[in-house]
Amino acid sequence: MQQKYQRYQELTDTLKSTCRILNLDRNSQLHQDITSICHHLANPNFQIAVFGPFNHGKSTLLNAILGNRTLPIDLIPTTGAAITVKYGTTVRTRIMLIDGTEIYRSGTEVLQQFAILDDNRQMRKDVASVEVFCPHPFLETGIEFVDLPGTNDREAQDNLVKDRLLGTDLVIQLLDARKLMTLGERENLRDWLLDRNIKTVIFVANFLNLLEPEEQKQVQNRLLFVAESFRADLPPGFSNLYRVDALPALRARLKGDVALANSSGLAAFETALQNLVGILQQNSSNVRLPRVQTVSSQLQALFFDKISNSSQTIKTFDDKENAKIEINKKAQNLIYQGFKTSIYELETWLSLPNLLKKYQADVAVALAENNLHSWQTGTFKKDLTELQNSVMKWLYQAYNFFKSERPEDLKIPFPHPPQLTLPEKQNNSNDLTEPGSLAVGGGIGWLLGGPVGAAVVGSISYILNKNLQKQDEQSAKDSYNQQVAKICIAAAEKYLSSFSSQGLSILAEYEKKSGKVIYFEVSQEPVEITQQRENLQKLQNQFNQLLGELQKANITSKYPPYQNQPKSTNSQIPKQQFYPPPKENTHRNPDRKVESPRQGNTPPKVEPLRQQVYTPPPNPAEVEAKFRAWEIEQEIAQIKANMKSPGANQKSQNQPKTPAQKDKITYAYRVLGLQPSASFLEVKQAYKTLVKKWHPDLFVNQPQMQKQVQEKMRLVNEAYSILEKNND
After folding, report:
1. How many angstroms separate the Cα of 177 from the Cα of each of 182, 207, 369, 497, 592?
2. pLDDT at 612
3. Helices in 369-434 by DSSP H: which ranges?
4. Quick one: pLDDT at residue 653?
5. What is d(CA 542, CA 439) in angstroms, rounded to the nearest whole number?
6. Residue 413: is its pLDDT beyond 90?
7. Which candidate, 168, 194, 280, places its Cα nearest to that of 235?
8. Helix (H) or strand (E) holding 49
9. How far apart are CA 75 and CA 153, in angstroms?
């Protein structure tokens, strides 16, 4: 028999591990139900519980079935523990205490100490279980009886009874014929049994012998109504209603009076019970698994809510992070574009052909006038500073936006002033009286004055703007002024060539370092989010494992298993730059050889810029305006996002119902006197109110109202059932 239930071991293990993963409170009703279900699945014996309010004769009925006074009975509620009666060769009792102590005694006298209520009508809190062993042939077939404490007395007793009912295969609900099926009994039947899929229930009416014959007939009719209202899941051919006068039945058994046992209803009940149990034992899975389905449905709902909440939290984080990344990517692209535009303009300006074209004449004149320092700190420095600041501006934009490494300032220094050597003067020259050969540093303006100085400056302008023919012939005839002018022009070219080469080299190195500033890195995910991802994966794995075990037991679920979800976009991005550092631009040529100063009066040849392999960048002002416009758009979008009200993601509505279903639901609300918008809590309250109003006990003295009352109660029960299903 034990092997029959070993196949549920993995299911019970999964249910227990599910409780741990969900961190269920051990004192919660769901945790208690799962514990009871696991014990139930592991128990190879068939358990029959006797259930009902105190002083209904539960212990008396069991003693009558067993044939002796095995269990404590009295005129006051005495059973203070769930007493399990099992098969044994002799009558003996085993008490297990919570601290692990085991008390084993012959007979059942020890029950008076451990299994009855104390003077304050309280159960003992140190008792874990109570078992009585009896040599009864019915028990020997693998049957166990459970004598439960009376209900409607103390909350602790009610909780114990509710927990134990879930672990029994058949429930005998004992009724008092003198006050048949009170409202409390009806609520317990619905809330403790039927709502938990415990539907193998039979009713036994006690004390019918204490009523007058006419009253017995009325009670019999009401008993039939009760049985019809709460039809149990029993095999065909078995009734769910029996009459047993418990005390006369016990006396008959103790005396061996067969006739009295028959008249008390005990013999008929025992026969039906043995036949019923024999069938249910063979199909015990049909009894136990529906209860597993009910409890597991609650677990699945908890799982679903917890997984949904966790998924939503992670999704919200990922959405924010991905939105932040997208914003940073857009900002990076704009900054990068602006930065490259500024780099392009500075590189273009630093190219030697452009420098010569724009500044060679000015440098040569400044050298001739001994005014190079003033020219450098004036026009030349202003142009350079403006272009350098344009480059650095974008790096500071990136620094302020990404909070990355602070950029270095771009500083391109000026070359040292060139050293000039003047040619020897002809002795017959009247232009100058100084020595003919003279080394001059920083200019010759102090040497050339008046008309002579002006002649040199004029020659510089003339040589650079005119293409003199017959250069070789003319050079011999050049005046001294023109020779000095050519020296200044060559020195200016060398000066600008040195400045171009050094500037392009510094700019290239500066651009490489800019990656640390422009190219942002994805921030590390917070530890709590990483842990939440791991916990979510554990929840999904455990949920899928639970569904798998339920499927093995042929228990269906309305939830599909979770598929392995890909990690968020953010989690897939490695901590690195989005774009590689910029490659060497094709127009850049920092290693270009610097030509030696040209001799003669040939004007310098201005080389055109090499063909670019990409479209020239836009105007810096356009890029700046675009970036600012984008910043404003992002700010407005953020304000709008903050103004959105929470709860935008609403739960999906239930599946649409057919017109016939809608009509039944509308009719059910009308029967209970409610509007269709009423909550289920209002439905339960209305149901209780109508039961109190139309309960058959209120119309005992009005036989003419019996049919109307029964019909009214049938409609009320039917309406409640419809709305209860609609609420699921």
Report:
1. 10, 6, 132, 119, 115
2. 36
3. 372-375, 381-402
4. 44
5. 92
6. yes
7. 280
8. strand 46-51
9. 15
